[in-house]
Amino acid sequence: MNYRIFPKIPDCQISVLGFGLMRLPLLSNSDEIDKEKTRNLIKLAVSQGVNYFDTAYPYHNGKSESVFGEIVKEENLRDKIFIADKMPVWDVKKEDDFYRILDEQLAKLQTSYIDFYLLHAMDGSRWEQMKNLNVTKFLEYAKSQGKIRHIGFSFHDNFDAFKKMCDEYSGFEFCQLQYNYIDEDGEIRTQNPGWQGLKYAAQKELGVIVMEPLRGGLLANPPSGIRDIFASADVPRLPAEWALRYVWESQEVITALSGMNDESQILVNCAVASTAFPNSMPQSQLEVIKKAQFWFESKIKVPCTGCKYCVPCPKGVSIPEIFEKYNNASMRGLFEQTEKILLTDYENLVNWNKGANQCVNCGSCVKHCPQHIDIPLKIQEAHNSLLLKI
Ligand code: SF4
Ligand code: SF4
Predict the structure, then answer these.
(1) Do residues 364 and 267 share a domain?
(2) Residues spanned by the domain of 324
(3) Does any domain span residue 312?
(4) How far is the CA of 303 from the centre of ligand 1 (A)?
(5) Across the 390 residues of the chain, what is the mean pLDDT of every consecutive 10-residue run?
(6) In this structure, which residue's CA is closest to atom 3 in ligand 1?
(7) pTM, full prediction
(8) 336 and 208, same structural domain?
(9) CA distance 24 to 1
């Protein structure tokens, strides 16, 4: 395992691969976390040198923090790992909420301190709201009390909003950005700072944690068009390895979080993490990545990462599944075929009253989407396109 150091936190050696605790294995036919499988995954990751674990208040409907906390306690891991957790800023309606929620998180994690504490899913308008609620006073108080050790934020908005947030509070020590070879130019299709964010963070001495290095698993299991591009490269690599190496190529990246829910993913990712160094990919390999970027650019219809922050919808619309089917149909080239194709899986969603036709345009999903997707508009577009082919 390779380790990197945050510019402002020289005493912490962080594994370049971090464990994201938002996609843990589930018990069969259930939304409940499979705790024993999770325990084995965490133990395996620690044995491979992973020391950064990232959870958040809403992950697994609030269960990620508590199941993880139980495992850390039972396996006596607290002194061997760094815990990152996040303030759900959308739930903060008054100043007291900050203090109440943090204490709740510490209780769920069964620890007296959180190493890396982030304001979750910040954007320009949330930063204004949080400032009005004296968020920096809360962060400094929590740090002075030893409840949190380092202050940061995760972010989804354009570069200007990111720059403003970095500039307005010097207490931030790190930030978390969405970065991968599709989202490198963040503002083209998503509201993310992309490479500009990476460079600016470095200028401000903020270490960068990368989220979605595999784009919700898409880059680990890409469509055949991408596999063909990688197969023509002069080095044999799995798609996940191409994606991770590309992220670690940037010196500004301290760790990349992967939501691993399978032992082989951990072993593969750790093996790559042990041999990936900044600025080490030759031009020929960067060209391969460029080709993959162009391919995705031309195919992806909606920049949905499948994070599920937008659900449940009060009308039962399966928003992430609709976007997944829409993007998959495009990536499989179905919209370019002239003959009619039966897209039964979307038809099933419609028959189960989970299709876009159930949407009443209430807008409640939109404010939760970190990618700022106009969900009612785009699910309608997906619906029209997918049903057109039936
Ligand atoms: S806008 Fe439509 S999809 Fe979004 S929450 Fe409302 S009903 Fe559901
Ligand atoms: S639509 Fe937005 S909130 Fe919903 S899963 Fe996709 S990216 Fe996440």
Answers:
(1) no
(2) 319-388
(3) no
(4) 18
(5) 96 96 91 95 98 96 96 97 97 97 98 98 94 98 98 93 96 95 70 87 96 89 92 92 96 94 93 94 94 89 88 94 89 69 74 92 92 94 78
(6) 359
(7) 0.85
(8) no
(9) 22
